[in-house]
User: Fold this.
Amino acid sequence: MSQSLPLSWSKTGEAAFHQVPVPAEKLSNYDLVVRCQEGLNPDRAAFAELLRRYQSHIEKVLYHLAPDWQDRADLAQEVWIRVYRNIKRLNDPVKFRGWLSRIATNLFYDELRKRKRVRDPLSLDAPRLVEDGEMDWEIASDDPGPEENLTTAEFYDRLREAIADLPEVFRTTIVLREIEGMAYEEIAEITGVSLGTVKSRIARARQRLQFQLQNYLEGR
Assistant:
C-alpha cells in the first residue's frame, strides 16, 4: 500500500514547488546578475531591478566625467543598452559594479573622441590637501562666509585648470579614486592595467595637483 502514491503526482508537486520564482526586488545583486545571464535574453524583471539599484551610480559617474554635457541622460541609456547586450560576458557577478563603471567610463571616452574637442570633463568641490598626500574633497565649512566663498571659487578655478592639465589616464584614476572612492584593485580592473600602474598614476597625479595648487596657495 505504501507504493500506491502516484509517481506522476509527486513529480508534478515537486516541479510546481520549484517553479515559484523569487521576486526580483528580493534578490541580491549577485542573484540578479545571474538571473540576467540565464536564458536567451536577460530576465526583464531582474534587469529592471538592476537598473533601479544602479541608475544613480551611473548618473554620478557620468556627472563627474561630463558635467557640462546636456545629453548625459542619453549616455546613461546607452550604458544600459550595452549592459543588456553584454551582461552574459561578465564572468564574475560579484564584480558587476566595477564592470558597470568601466562601461560608463569607456562610453564617455568614446564620445569624447567622437566630439573631437578638448575640455575639462570634471566638476569637483575644492579639496584640501592633507599631510599624507590624500585629497580631502569636502568644503571646510557647511555655511561659508563671503570671503570663504571667494577663496573657494578661486581655488576651484585653479583646481579645474590643474586637472585639465593632467593626462587622460591620470584624470580617470583620480576620479575613480577620489570621487568614486574605489579601491586600487577595482580601479585596476576598470582601467585594465596592473595594480602597480594604478598606484603610480594616482601618486603622479597627486604630485602634479599638489605642486600646482601649492604654488597658487604660496603666491596668495
User: Anything to note?
Assistant: The mean pLDDT is 76. Strands lie at 128-129, 135-136. The chain has nine helices and two strands.
